[in-house]
Amino acid sequence: MTYRSLAEMFLSQAKRYGSRTLYRFAVEGRWEELSWQKSLARVREIALGLLALGVRRGDRVAIAAANRVEWSLIDWADICAGALTVPLYPSSTASQVAYILAHSGATVLCVDSPERLKKLDWSQPSLDAVRTIVLIDSAAPLVGLPAGISVISLNELQRMGREYDREHNGIFEQTARSLRPEDDLTIIYTSGTTGESKGVLTTHGHYLFMLQSVEAAIPCGAGDVVLQFLPLAHSFGRLEHFLVVAEGFTCCFARSLETVARDLLAVRPTLLFSVPRVYENAYRRILLRAEAASAPLRALFRWAQFVAARRLGRLDRKEPLPLTLRVAYRVAERLVFGRIRRAFGGRLRLAISGGAALSPEIAGFFHGLGILVLEGYGLTECATVSHVNRVERHKRGTVGPPLPGVECRIAQDGEVLLRGPNVLKEYYRDPAATREILSAEGWLHTGDIGEIDDDGFLRITDRKKDIIVTSGGKNVPPQAIESVLKADPLILQAMVIGDGQRHLMALVTLNQERVAEWAAREGIELVAATDAVSHPRINALIQESIRRANRELAAFEAVRRFRIVPREFTVEKGELTPTLKLRRHVIRERYRHLIEEMSRRP
Fold this sequence. Notes:
The chain folds into three domains: 6-179 and 218-270, Rossmann fold (3-Layer(aba) Sandwich); 276-346 and 349-464, 3-Layer(aba) Sandwich (Rossmann fold); 467-600, ANL, C-terminal domain (GMP Synthetase, Chain A, domain 3, 2-Layer Sandwich), CATH 3.30.300. The strands form seven sheets. It has a five-stranded parallel sheet, sandwiched between helices. It has a four-stranded mixed sheet with strand order 2-1-11-10, with helices on both faces. A four-stranded mixed sheet has the order 12-13-14-15, with helices on both faces. The termini are far apart. It is an alpha/beta fold. It has 21 helices and 25 strands.
């Protein structure tokens, strides 16, 4: 890319695509569109409004809102004004929001609802930097705010921008075009599976390199349509948001995570960026519907799966497909796979998975029915991505080779090290943490354990801090085992434990929909979801599932004991990060009694 900044990229692409649709979003159940021209006009007004508020290059503007078109517009306005966006997860607690606002020194806070502000204690000196609150939907009166904080609506901010423009003609374009690759772009706070979040400071240059590298690795372009449901506060969702502009996509905003299945049918995306949880849920729903079908349809589905598995095996081994297999697959495609793909809108040609490990079984299932899921890897600290599988060169169970321009090596203790133009500038206001993660030679210590095969494909085995050391001295990566356990449709989540123990143990949560379906078939009445926890037949089913999983594992990796947790792990309860990774220390403490009970057994 020849752009000097993301601001220049946005202005150039808006001019290039003009009246074409950039954003689609639902308003009261009706899908509306915003063209590139109109998006630029709104971005311009918001940016000028920020300048009118006194925001200058390098100032921080926080956004605390669910995914919506205004989120993207405000972010592009920040970028064009030279301000640094500080994204906040909608699920963040009051203490997390207060910490990030204080640490970043954000002077402007944009929120979608006054409800997000009510839990904050504005009398804290740590929040003194905030001078203006922008309410995206309205300027409803807020009580309890210090006298020095003004509250305005987004519409009012845009009105201020129009007035400022009349008095400072050309200042928007001048500011946007003055930015350079070395200028700071954003501070993204890590979701923090342990300890306090750290603010990852990246520049325009980091993401210009990233966009260029992703473009070289993934076939995409101006005709593509994406459904944006990944949190824009997360680096993966933010990269998708940048790619939309870099490649000229049409971006459709999902109404919520709960409506994703219906939104897929409405917008019919060609590309899908997601975390494994979405593919896992879709996989389970497909199996559930297949099992609930009539006996002939169940038999047809199993036959189609068998055909797909045979075909995929030959493709993996680069063996020619016999005529009989090609014909059988065409029949399976017409009768089964094409119908399943229609649930994704019918146009999906490529899916990307990141943020956590995707089960090779699930990836193979989708590939077999005609949806190629390419798994990638990266961290917020390396501008989101360092590795990704390619359409023409991929291996399930790996995260692919590195992106062009990124170096990767494995340290003596197995840690994955990265180096390249995408590696963070620093942890904001934390030089000690920066020195800890970044070597003098520029190598980023990822904290992940992995291995590189002879073809250059990286396989992530676990987090360095999550490695379990048994009493026999075996080092066991739990995430790979958890993926095997979760392949059973009855098991929704699993966390493997075993530090200092002779054998591994697991806490599992149940897929309540699947359990209810099974109970109905068996004539078992479960009044409450918690009834399943102690039901002997359900425990026997999970026990048998774990026995089957153990056959795929080494003896020291086998799970010998388990307990069913009465509800699923959630973000709201602090057991998952906003990107759905396990907060292991929280879960261990919350269910310490179950872990101790398993540990006491002879």
